[in-house]
Amino acid sequence: FFQKTLTAVKNWFTLFGWSKGQNPVSVPYSLRRDVCKVQATSSQDKVFKQNREKDTKTLYDMLFHLSGQLLPDITSSQALVLDPTERMLQLHCQHSTLLAFLKCQGAYLPHVMPEFLLEPDDYKKWIEVQQALQKVYEETSEIYSNKHLLILKDSVFEAMSKRAWTDVLLQIYKVFVLPHVFSRSVTDQFSLENVQNMPRIKSEPLSSNIYSPYERTILTWLNKHYEKNRKTVWKDCQKGEI
């Protein structure tokens, strides 16, 4: 189920997540790799930087295309600093900003930590920094607790990162794409005759703390067509016999 969900997510964002045609998405690899524009390291790299920036599409380009908004203090042409540790801290800060931005839009991501969105090597650097901070605070007798520090093995981190990026994309779809779904009054003969047999889903905004109004619209549509096809496929079957 998870693999099918992942494939559907990759296909949709590859086809429709960008402003100028298709752009292949791999989860989590291209999202982690192309999170920022490259930074030139010398004058000889200027041509490479210009060509790369022209072709590279980042997560922030996708967000701007789907939402029309830029994240606070982050631009679509953001470049990374050169120092590895500073770069890791910059990315961690940007991922924190991303998650906070999505949550403000209605995304549900309490289980996704910014460090789960990092590259494996950057995640290891982040762990090292946290452990170094712990040691410093212990030596100075200051109160510091890393009881929530989750140290993952390489294979576990990759699985966690893939799941985290998948959930981020799903929530981006939820808060920026699903609102385009609208409900239309249905008066066809099937609906009039069988509405009493369909599971009822309330459309009021406050009727659910799980599904948004747009998700409930889709669920209603799915229930309607399930009921219709149930009678076609299992003509003489009662619901309890299916």
TrEMBL record:
<dbReference type="Pfam" id="PF24529">
    <property type="entry name" value="CFAP47"/>
</dbReference>
<protein>
    <submittedName>
        <fullName>Calponin homology domain-containing protein 2</fullName>
    </submittedName>
</protein>
<dbReference type="GO" id="GO:0007288">
    <property type="term" value="P:sperm axoneme assembly"/>
</dbReference>
<dbReference type="GO" id="GO:0005929">
    <property type="term" value="C:cilium"/>
</dbReference>
<dbReference type="InterPro" id="IPR056343">
    <property type="entry name" value="CFAP47_dom"/>
</dbReference>
<feature type="domain" description="Cilia- and flagella-associated protein 47">
    <location>
        <begin position="53"/>
        <end position="181"/>
    </location>
</feature>
